[in-house]
Amino acid sequence: MPLQILLPMFAHVLLTALLYVFLTVARAPSIWGVGRRPDGSNPFAKIEPRISANLSNQFEWPLLFYAGCILLHLGGTIGPLAIGLAWLFVLGRLAHSVVQICTTNVRLRGAVFTVNFLAVLGLWGIVLHQAIVRLG
Length: 136
Description:
With 136 residues, this protein is mainly α. The chain has one domain (2-135): Up-down Bundle (Four Helix Bundle (Hemerythrin (Met), subunit A)), CATH 1.20.120.550. The chain has helices at residues 2-31, 48-57, 62-75, 80-102, 106-135. Helix 1 (2-31) packs parallel to helix 4, helix 2 runs antiparallel to helix 4 (80-102) and helix 3 packs parallel to helix 5. The longest helix is centred in the first third of the chain and has 30 residues, at 2-31.
């Protein structure tokens, strides 16, 4: 079971790496001139700030996701609920990235973020429960 909690963490690392690739491609016309339009403009100028903002988001709330998963991994007792919440978080982050990069729908982005938020709170609830059980 401990390996199963590491897999969603690895999936999030891959998502973050993919966002770095997207950001590099989106900035290439401005930085290296690769893919620049005939008029010299960047065809990705509107989407580049959204990719950049989303990439920054991958280092905010996910920090607490990683901390919770690591504590569960170190504790050695990881049930299906924790694994399910971890995967829910990753799928929510993927959905959040798609919504933030491809749309300007702030309401939808907030709704998707709520899923991520609750998944991490659930993981921390499990961490707290395990700590109380060990102490009691």
